[in-house]
């Protein structure tokens, strides 16, 4: 013979009061979430009877919102510190280095020796110092002096023509 289970007198549908109680229990469990806590406070403040019936729920929701506000303020302070730290440690040295290199570039360009503008003038200067070309240059200078044409450059390489020195 199978064991018979005792028959309990339970209503098939739970009463509304029982469901309401379950809903309030769920609110107590989930009131740690700031969005739900804000909605509960709004609902409890709209109905003073509910607020009197559930004062612990109201106070814990207020506490949840206060903790959330403190957490956000702390996160903002940490974010400000991180931004300041990165600005001081990373951005400012890079900015100073860029500024120094910009000024250093101008100084370096000014410190470079001036280059002779004409490569032919450098070659003439170098070759005119050799004895075999010096005699040819003197001969050329005497010919160009008779015709009135100017030499390309002096043997010393100063870039002024013969005609400008003789005039």
What percent of residues are in strands? under 5%
**What is the element string, with H for helices and E for strands?**
HHHHHHH
* Counted beta strands: 0
Query: Largest sheet, described in full?
Result: none
| Helical coverage, percent range | over 70%
Ranges where pLDDT stays below 50 over 5 or more residues in a row are 153-167
**Class per helix and strand makeup:** mainly alpha
CA distance, first residue to last residue: 146 Å
| Number of helices, where a helix is a run of at least 4 consecutive DSSP H or I residues | 7
Coarse shape: rod-shaped
Q: Taking Cα atoms only, what radius of gyration do you get, to the nearest Å?
A: 49 Å
Overall mean pLDDT score? Answer: 78
Which tags fit this structure?
single chain, 167 residues, mainly alpha, 74% helix, disordered C terminus
Explain what you see:
The chain has helices spanning 16-30, 34-46, 48-53, 55-111, 119-128, 131-147, 162-166. The chain has 167 residues and is mostly helical. Helix 2 crosses helix 4. The radius of gyration is 49 Å and the shape is rod-shaped. The relative contact order is 0.05.
């Amino acid at each position: 013979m199978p064991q018979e289970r005792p028959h309990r007198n339970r209503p098939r549908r739970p009463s509304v009061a029982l469901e309401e109680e379950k809903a309030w229990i769920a609110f107590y469990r989930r009131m740690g979430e700031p969005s739900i806590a804000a909605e509960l406070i709004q609902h409890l403040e709209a109905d003073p009877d509910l607020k009197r019936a559930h004062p612990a729920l109201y106070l814990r929701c207020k506490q949840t919102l206060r903790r959330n506000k403190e957490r956000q303020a702390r996160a903002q302070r940490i974010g400000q510190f991180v931004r300041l730290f990165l600005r001081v440690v990373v951005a400012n040295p890079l900015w100073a280095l860029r500024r120094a290199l910009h000024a250093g570039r101008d100084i370096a360009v000014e410190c470079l020796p001036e280059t002779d503008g004409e490569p032919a003038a450098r070659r003439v200067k170098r070759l005119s110092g050799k004895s075999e070309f010096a005699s040819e240059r003197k001969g050329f200078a005497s010919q160009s002096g008779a015709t009135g044409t100017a030499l390309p450059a002096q043997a010393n390489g100063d870039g002024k023509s013969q005609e400008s020195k003789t005039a």
